[in-house]
Amino acid sequence: MTTILVVDDEPNIQELVRLYLEKDGLKVELAGSGEEALDKLKSSNPALVILDIMLPDMDGFEACRQIRKTNDIPVLMLTARKDDIDKILGLELGADDYLTKPFNPRELVARVRAVLRRYSSGQKAGKPIEVGNLRIDMARREVEIDGKPVKLRTKEFELLTALAQNFGIVLTRERLLEMIWDTDYYGETRTVDIHINHVRDKIEGANVAIETVRSVGYKLVRATLEADAGMSH
């Protein structure tokens, strides 16, 4: 049975989330602090972490940093603030999704299922994509440049794969949101930009580049001096 680790110091939130996730056939482990979450991550081997930002010891951002040092498990962050600062910071730290409190528990379950689907889709076998010195093995979820491994997080891998599968074709930010975050994702296109910048940093040295098509979206192209000069903006 798929296990979800719920990290929140509010018992009523813990029980609400547990009720809806278990009703959907998922097993739930609970943690009330960041330290407890890190311990349970090792002992319960969850498939996904639901992580509140406001915790009594370390905050959710630091907990996410600690998780990302050793684990690529999907993380869905909860924030009580409605502005974008928490959301953007969480995404930059490697969170896969976020939800603002108060939330509809049915939406939470739908987002958990969507993240799990995206994460597991890479398990399906497929012929590796090779573009220049970049190699993407979808079955193994591995990326190499000149035979050297490149560490990508879940959405970073899926973004790069989507661009490589559509080499030379412009994919709009909205289309990338649909492909990577599903059509029911309520985030803004800024989310795509953040992840694209992460991917660019990590594939530096490849002879391909992610080119920005201003006011439209992105495409993967052969690296040229012109493309390199225009990548970041």
Helix content class: 40-55%
What is the overall number of helices?
9
Q: What count of structural domains?
A: 2
User: Briefly, what CATH class of the largest domain?
Assistant: Alpha Beta
Compute the CA-based radius of gyration: 18 Å
Give the overall average pLDDT. Answer: 85
Stated plainly, the CATH topology of the largest domain is called Rossmann fold
Beta-strand segment tally: 12
Order of strands, widest sheet: 2-1-3-4-5
Between the first and last Cα atoms, what is the distance in angstroms?
A: 44 Å
Biggest β-sheet strands, sense, barrel: 5 strands, parallel
SSE order, one letter for each helix or strand = EHEHEHEHEHEEEEHEHHEEH
Coarse shape: elongated
Report low-confidence residues grouped into runs of 5 or more.
225-233
CATH architecture of the largest domain: 3-Layer(aba) Sandwich
Backbone structural class = alpha/beta
> What is the CATH homology-level superfamily of the largest domain?
Response regulator
